[in-house]
Design a protein that fits this description.
With 66 residues, this protein is mostly helical. The chain is 70% helix and 0% strand. It has helices at 12-21, 29-32, 34-65.
Length: 66
């Protein structure tokens, strides 16, 4: 993987060099938005898992009743 194309996987010295030169890569937005993205993943993951567990419980109840 070429770290010049993907700065998220670059070593800190390379990122400092790019920062000193004033080079901005669109991939660096990932680092700025990380707390928001983590929170979003946790909220949606929780909602999907609750929905999945409710669906599973309803299926088991319907299967046992039959």
């Amino acid at each position: 993987m070429d770290t010049y194309l993907n700065p998220v996987h670059a070593d800190p010295s390379l990122l400092r060099t790019f920062s000193r030169l004033g080079f901005e890569h669109p991939g660096m937005d990932l680092l700025r938005n990380t707390p928001f993205q983590r929170r979003l993943v946790r909220v949606w993951g929780g909602l999907i898992s609750v929905f999945g567990l409710a669906f599973l419980a309803a299926g088991v109840v319907l299967l046992v009743r039959a």
